[in-house]
Each structure stands twice: as structure tokens, then as C-alpha cells.
Amino acid sequence: MSSVLEVRQVSKAYGRTDAVDSLNMDLAEHTIYGLLGRNGAGKTTFLNMITGGIFPDGGEIAVHGNLLKKGDVPTQTCYIREKNFYPNNARVRDVLQMAAAFHPDWDAKFASKLLGTFKLNPRKKMRQLSRGMESMVGNLIGLASRAPLTIFDEPVLGLDVLMRERFYRMLIEDYAEHPRTILLSTHLIDEIATVVEQVFIMESGSILMHEEVEQIRDRAHMISGLGAGLDHFLQGRRVIHGERYGNAGMAVVYGELTEHDHREAASQGLTIEGVPLQKFFAYLIEEGQTDE
Amino acid sequence: MNKMKVQLRVSWLRMKLAVWILLAAIAVSMATGIIVNAALDSDPQQDAQDVAAAVGELREITGNDELQIEVPSEMENVNVSSANMLLTLLPLLAIILPLQTFRPMMNFGDSRRRYFTGLLGVYAVSALLLALVNSLWWPFEQNFVRIYSQTYNLIEVFGWEQFGTVGAFIYQSVFYFFVLTLFNLLFSGLKSPISWIIWTVLIAAIPIGTSIASLRVHVADFFLALLFNDSLINAVGINLGLSLIFIAGAWLFTRRRTF
Amino acid sequence: MPIPFDESRPIFQQIAERIEDDILNGTYAEEDQIISTTQFSRIFQINPATIVKGFGLLVNEDIIYKKRGLGMYVAVGAKEKIMAKRRERFYSDLVVKLLEEAEKLGMTTEDVIQMIQREKEEQRK
Question: Which keywords label this protein (chain A) (predicted)?
């Protein structure tokens, strides 16, 4: 598989704070990725760098194999910003026509179908739209662009449940027929958990974890039981989070558990459960913070 | 729609309000000009007699024989030619476009290079169009407008009529392009410290250039060569030469301009 | 309309189980074509790669097989294979745990058997 995005040791500082710190990322063809992190984790700064909006202080970025020089904007890329900059006195219809000029793979038929699905009135002016509808115009452009690298920054912000659902449905549907590389940046894991194949978890400008979502589901465990047995079991494992109450406790660990591990836990009277993803990420980010 | 068309569309959307306001202002000023001139229907000799009589009365009332009132010899209203008022668009274009179209174009996925060449295209077309409008307006102004009101036009003020209709058109085009590229330079790199230096130098140059006598001659020479040049070829050379420098400067800002 | 999967367990396993359930309850007979990856992906809003992985699990166990260019079909003897596998799991997951829990509560194996028989009689009534 050829590489769609290669990021090597990219850093960006604003004054004394590192917005992005020696970050590495590789995106392959035909995969949906999630970029997860809290607000202020550096996601947007990073996305602005890989799309040529701002320039890194150091490191290298290559998009579709072409090294991005200072001032370059990558081709075959569609970046839908969290806050869009479409002229506010333009009509939705015109904005779509204008966006089409920049995307060689644009599908006009699909775009007009999406207008209906997303309940957007093409005759409305951008400034007449609610925050959610404005996001939907961007999302529509991102989908209809069919760009080999499509990036959405917080695509569902301000959307009601129905529209979130519709966006992700159209994304999955269109992706199945026209595979491409999609990067979804968000702080809400729950909604993209089944949509994305792999996630990058970002905190304080660094990637804390890069993993297949299914792998995380397989490897994240919550173990609870009596303190002594628990301590013994946790030895040598990656403990993400731990809590004690009385002489009992619980811990969230990350790693594969073998049949043998399960039997050992059972013999110590420990119970092993799965951890919901959102919980796991919250613990992981918390852990990343206390490390500083 | 191709990318250039998108840029024209975005430029128009951003300029729309300013253009309508300007056109409305020109219409209002034309209308008031006609009304005022019609109402006054003035006769300079009659005016002078009226003023003399009024001064005499004032001297009697105040008992001050020294009292004098300065009266301009020409009492009529002098207006800027309506076609020249349209030239307000030059600074407006070159301020609004770099400030307001860079991000929308980048947001659509445009490259800095294509955006910049497109912008220069918009400027070139605007300069030619405005020169054309004024060139067409000029005979109409001389033969018709001036029956009703006193106006002045850049073509006459700078003596461009000496180059004939086509010559005046060319002079205007290059000068307008010069103005556009100058403002474009000033508003293309507002985030850059180099741009702040250019601004400071320019602002400082005005009082320094006019107050120091030895410099004043050079400043005057410069403006003579730029605006009152008796050689059309030299004028084109100076205007376009300076434009090229401004374009180069603006490109240096734009190629590193952040979103 | 995505059916909530258990978020704390790999989804591809749950997809495989769902297809197995459908074979067990007769939704799909032997040699029937099963739902396509694309359809499954659209209906449940799940990344197609995850579904391919889930189907792959069943292909490896010879429960379904791929007809080139047509789709996935239920293999002959799939139902028996699933039942055998589930019986195995029934023993390890349910019977073993049941007896462990019974032991914690101080119950003998006989007590458990009696309870099961009582429940069976209740159901017959």
C-alpha cells in the first residue's frame, strides 16, 4: 500500500508552548482514521500544517509522496475546517460550485443527492444558516470531493443527533463504494468508534497511542477484586488507571490477556471486563497528563 | 466553473457592498451637483456686487472701515469628475481583496501561487476597465457635463490628454495598476514584521520628504516623473517598474502567508 | 439505524456471532447468499474493513465461503459446525462458571442438578 501521508518529527510552538511536539504519523491508502483528543490537544494546529495552512518549525510532511515545502498546499486533498471560510453572502449552491473547481474527483450528482439528505436549501445564503447547517455544507463538500485524502475537523460540532447519524451513514456508504483515506478529527469517540479503522490519540501535541480500534477493544480490560490479588496480577502490565476502595480495587490495563491470564485472574478471585472506548480514552489521556 | 472564475466570484462577493455604496455615493453627488448648480444659477458679476454691498453695510454697522472679506474669484462649485470618483475602487480593491479573499480561496484548496497570479489578473483587468470607463467618460464630461457644472478629471490635471485618447488610456492603465499593486503590497503581509517596517518607512517618508528642503526637490521630481511625465514611454516604464517591485514584495509575503 | 454492539468487545467477533446466529435460527440455509459487506456496513454504520475481518473469521472456520464476484455463501454443514463450537463454549463459559458460582454459595452439584430439573418441570406446565 502506498503512503498517503507521512509525517516525521513535526513540531510547532507558539511562544513557549509546544502546540505540536515531534509528531509522527503515517496514513495508508483506503483507510478511515480517527484523530482523537481534547480541545486544545493540538489537533487543528497539526491539521493546518499537513494541509499547508501554517508551517512547522521542524520536521517533514509528505502528502501522496510529495514533500510539502514551506508555502506549498497539497494536491488531491480536501480539508474541511471546523470553522469554514465560505463567503457568507454566497448561496449554498454557489459554494458547492466553487468548491467543485478545486476537486478533480468531485461528483456533482452525489452533491445534489446529499443536499436532500442533509436537508440543505441550495438557495439559502451561507449567513442564513445555523451553525449545524454550516457544518453540513462543509461535510457535504468533503464527501462530494472524493479527494484521495479527505480531512474533517470536528465534523459533527453543533449538529443534532439525526444529522450526525446521517453524516456518518453517508460517509460509510460512500466510502464502501469509493474507498479513500479519511481522517476524522474529533473529541467525541463514541460516534466514530465503529466508523474508523484506526485511531491516533493526541494529547499536549503528541500522539499517546496509535492502534486499530478493534485491537483496543480486545486489549483494554478493567480488572477488579481484592487489593492483594490485584497487585500481584498487575505486575508487569501496562496499568492505565487504578482506584482503591477499602481492601478492594479496580484497574484498567492495556494488553493482551492469554487463557492462562484469565485462569490466573479467576483463581485470584478477580473479574475481568471490557472497557467502553470513551472511558478508556479518558483514562489514557488522564495518564498522559500526570506523566508531565 | 474553473479556479479563476471562483476567484472572480469570491472577489465580487467581497467587493459587492463597497461597490454598491460607492455607486450610490456617486449618484447622490451627481444629483446634488445638478440640483445645487441649477438652484444657484449664478452670475459672477452679480455675486461680486452683492458681496461689496454687504461689506459696505457691515462697515457701517461695526464702524470699522478696515473690515475686509475675502471672496474667491470663482464662486462656482468645482466637483471631482464622477468617473474619477469611481477610482476610489483602486484602494478599496487592493485593501479588501488581499485581506478578504486569501483565506476563502485557501479554504477551497487553492494554492498560494495560483491565488496570487489570479489576484494580479483581477488587478490588471480592473486597471484596464477603470481606465476605459474614464476614457469614455472624458469626452462626454468635456462636451456635456461641463455645461452644468465645473469638474476636474485626472486626464486633464496630470496633462495626459497630450498623448491623445489611446495615450491617455495607456497612462491611466499603468498608473492605476501602480496604485493597485502598491496597496496590495501594504495589505498582503500584515502579519509580517517586514510589512510593518514598510508601513513605518512609508508613513515617516511623508513628513520627512516634504519638510527637508533638499529632499523636497527629489520628492517633487519623483511625482513629476510618475504622474506628469511628458514621455509616455518613460511613464509606462516607471509605473510598471515600480509595480513589478511591489508585486515581487507582495509575492514574498503571500508565499509565506499563513492561513 | 445502528444496532448497539458491545463497545468493549471487538466488533468483528460480534459480527461473526451475528451471522452464526442467523444460520442457527434458519435465516440463512446452506448455500444461501449472506448479506454483503457493503450492505452490512451501511445498515450498521460499521467500517467495511471490520466486517471483512468478521466474515474472514467465518471463512477460516469453513462456515461461509466466497464465490468470486458474487459474494459470501453459507457452507454445507455450517450449522453443525457452529453448534459443535457453541456446545464447546457452552461448557467452558456457562457450565464451568455455574459450578464455580455454586461452590461459592456452598451448593453441591446435586443441588444444581435438582434446580435445573425443577426449572424444566416449571416450564412443562
Answer: ATP-binding, Nucleotide-binding
